[in-house]
Amino acid sequence: MIEALRKHRGDGRCYERRPDITAILLDLEGLSQERLVYRAQIRLKTDPQYLPSECLLHLIRKSKRDNSNQLFETLFRILMARVESAATLRSEIYRLPTGKMAITTFGIKVRDHVVDRFLARLIADRNGYDERLDYFEINFAHAIASLRSTAKAKAASEEKRYQPLAANDDEEVSAEVEKAAGAFDPFDTTKIDDGNYRFRLFAAIKKLPEKERHVVALLFKEYPVESNDPDKPSICKILGCVEKTVRNRRDRAFEKLKAALSEEQIDA
Known about the structure:
Elements (H helix, E strand, L loop, with lengths): L18 H10 L4 H8 L12 H13 L3 H19 L5 E3 L5 E3 L1 H22 L13 H23 L12 H9 L5 H4 L2 H12 L3 H11 L14 H5 L3 H25 L1
Antiparallel strand pairs: 1-2
Helix pairs in contact: 3-4, 4-5, 5-6, 7-12, 9-12, 10-12
């Protein structure tokens, strides 16, 4: 017997699962835990035995009533891996020189917000019943997309609130700024090994506007501003900017870093 969802619509009707999801859940009735786990581990969506996330979530919620902690733990790991994948913005992923994939700070904030919010609902449901999960059993992808949209707006708002306004990327930097930036290297090998200097430098980098901070972070990882090799990553390719924009952000960032480090030396 498949338990009905409890959340009500505005007109008083209860939420109902899609017919295709209900059909799969009926097929799962009576299957052994081993068989359920086998099907849950299938990753290929075109496989006839693949379990949609709506079904995985239903089984996880049902495991509470069945007192099946082992099944819960196994299905929980599988579902959370799907949630984390769906919460990750592909536009915020880039490749490191080592070949490994990395994600921007903004992307991490969005992913973690979605995962945390979903996990909070799951914990609340485990301790009772959380109606907010009912829609996830109807359209899991759309429910996650809604959390992701909220997370993006929240992350963008936080970065605006805590960072100074950035200059227009297309606006030419002054000759003085460009000259100062060209003569200043925050990653000077004669200084970077000094723990005190490195601490002050990274503290100053954290205060930069997001776009300038990303450029500096990539320069620190020794990415070139531009590359003619289509297989070699560059800052322009990673950030999707033209060379002029990247150099403008770099020059403004270097000017701010130079000023911040000079001020700290005076204060010291």
